[in-house]
Amino acid sequence: MWPLGHVAVAYLCYTIATRARFDAPPAGVPALVLVFGSQFPDLVDKPLAWYLGVIPTGRTLAHSLLVLVPLTLAVLALSSHYNRSEYGIAFAIGALSHVLVDALPALWGPNESATHLLWPVVPVEEYEQGAPSILALFQESLGQPFFLAEFVFAAVALVCWHRHGYPGLKPIRTVFDRVWPTLG
């Protein structure tokens, strides 16, 4: 899944969680933490695999539940310690939804695999000819129904985000106003 799809799925999952727990939409800073969490596995794995070559693929270390679950528990404990539990929950939903959604194609595709969920205990198939280019990955994605579904998720998430008052924008604007006060 592409970054837009990961953010969309994470936002929809987090919206359900905040509605169930608080009967309220997501708050600003937790929404930003959610966005970071939804990208976290790729922010770690893609550079390590594609540019540094220290892990076998772009879905190994931070995509592995054997690594991500303990890390998420540590983030939850740390955020709770600082009375910011919602930040930890947002990160957990973002990061865990990312790896689980990446594993979904394995349910219906014979050429797909979810072995990354248990790496390094279960080996992953390494790149045959080196790391793929973003353009090659995009072209490969164009014919897949899962790729098109990302836009549906993104549209639904965007409608929800609008209805919720765009949580996350206010903290960003506050930072910009402090850094560049003359632009406002």
TrEMBL record:
UniProtKB keywords: Hydrolase, Membrane, Transmembrane, Transmembrane helix
InterPro entries reported for this sequence: YdjM-like (IPR007404)
Transmembrane portions of the chain: 61-80, 87-108, 142-161
GO molecular function: hydrolase activity
Keyword Transmembrane helix applies: yes
Signal peptide positions on this chain: none
Entry annotated with the keyword Membrane: yes
Pfam families in alphabetical order: YdjM
Official protein name in the record: LexA-binding, inner membrane-associated putative hydrolase
Organism whose genome encodes this protein: Natronorubrum thiooxidans
